[in-house]
Amino acid sequence: MFTGIIIEKGLIKDIKRKDNEIEMVIFSKKISSFKEGMSISCAGICLTVVSFENYESGHLFSVYISNETLSRTTLAEYMEGDQINLEKSLALGDEMDGHIVQGHVDGVAEITDVEQDGESSRFTFKIEPNLVKYIAPKGSVALDGTSLTVNNVEGNKFDVNLIPYTLDHTTWKSNLKGDKVNIEVDILSRYVLNANKLERF
Q1: Mind listing the pLDDT tens digit for each residue in 29-41?
Q2: Does residue 76 fall inside a structural domain?
Q3: Residue 104: which of 175, 182, 38, 156 has the closest Cα?
Q4: Residues 20, 63 within the same domain
Q5: What integer pLDDT is reported at residue 99 of this predicted model?
Q6: Pair 82, 113 in one domain
Q7: Second label for 65, Cα 20 to 30 Å away, from 54, 72, 86, 152?
Q8: In the Cβ-directed half-sphere of 108, how many Cα atoms lie within 13 Å?
Q9: Do residue 169 and residue 113 come from a single domain?
């Protein structure tokens, strides 16, 4: 489980493609306590660390990405040299910021507009119609692993504001109109809607 509070921007050092899967090697400077089998959120996707090693002033770690994950997320579009949002999974007793994020991506959202809004940047997204019911004004959503608050919802579009701190400490500063990002809806919205369905029976 994660919180959507990005620890750092990792750097993709290598991508090895084999059949319909890839092995991605990522450099992390801030995550220090690696172990094989641990979970780490990469652009909002829960992946398993299969190996790691000391490298310069940090660590290199490897994750395998299956064809299923590649087909449902933006990971297939990443290239060597790209930055990627990273978050280590929660440990018992850790402070809970952000909101509950599982790292189970629901789909891909497309950025349809980016505009300055005071000191913040307002991003507007288009999503698949089947996800709209889970997006609520002032509710939470995880985009590329970042916990954000929804401003408005209209049709199959919604918008969020990113403050300068978030822009500086994540990959969002490089996102442009037309880019696609991973989306995970709020797990509480999912449970509430499913509970309402069960009550009808």
Answers
A1: 999 889 999 999 9
A2: yes
A3: 182
A4: yes
A5: 86
A6: no
A7: 54
A8: 14
A9: yes
